[in-house]
Write a structure and sequence with these properties.
Four Helix Bundle (Hemerythrin (Met), subunit A); 168 residues; 6 helices; 68% helix; mainly alpha
């Protein structure tokens, strides 16, 4: 029960804020409401948004499950995985959870046909492109040492490998 509460708290504070609270605030501040596009181009963008949403949710949920099961931790920086997770989507890219969140943010922008939401997605991506190498990765090197450095040599931070990395 305590483990479930740890995960729910980390989800409520981090991804819920980024994926729900901020986008709702942006929509209200800009008078944006969900609506089906009238023209073919708008509908094509919204269909692309649905595809990005599905991909983003698969990456996020898969990463979350691996953190809980294999990593014995949560997505929260204050309760991180205790074991190095390099299976599943982590064989393709080092930050599939952030990739999933970014895909969902761009999906929201496409589904709503909203430039303010697209700017939020870009800002979140830029923030993580700075935070991850400056803050997160040095902590991972200290925590996991040589195995993490080896993993970093083979798996890219942002743009995924097409073929999964086979460690060892």
């Amino acid at each position: 029960m305590v483990t479930l509460l740890r995960h729910l708290l980390s989800i409520a504070i981090l991804p819920f804020t980024v994926l729900v609270l901020v986008p709702v605030w942006i929509a209200r501040a800009n008078g944006i409401a969900p609506a089906l596009a009238e023209a073919g181009a708008g509908r094509a963008l919204q269909a692309g948004g649905l595809a990005l949403l599905a991909l983003g949710l698969v990456l996020f949920v898969s990463s979350l499950r691996r953190f809980a099961g294999e990593g014995e931790g949560t997505l929260a920086p204050w309760d991180p995985p205790r074991k190095l997770v390099i299976r599943g989507p982590y064989r393709h890219v080092r930050n599939p959870m952030i990739s999933g969140v970014v895909f969902v943010l761009f999906a929201e922008a496409l589904l709503l046909l909203s430039w303010p939401h697209a700017l939020w997605a870009l800002a979140f991506l830029a923030l993580n492109l700075v935070y991850i190498p400056l803050m997160e990765e040095p902590q991972l090197v200290r925590r996991f040492g040589a195995p993490y450095r080896e993993y970093c040599r083979h798996v890219p931070r942002v743009l995924p490998r097409l073929r999964p990395w086979q460690d060892g």
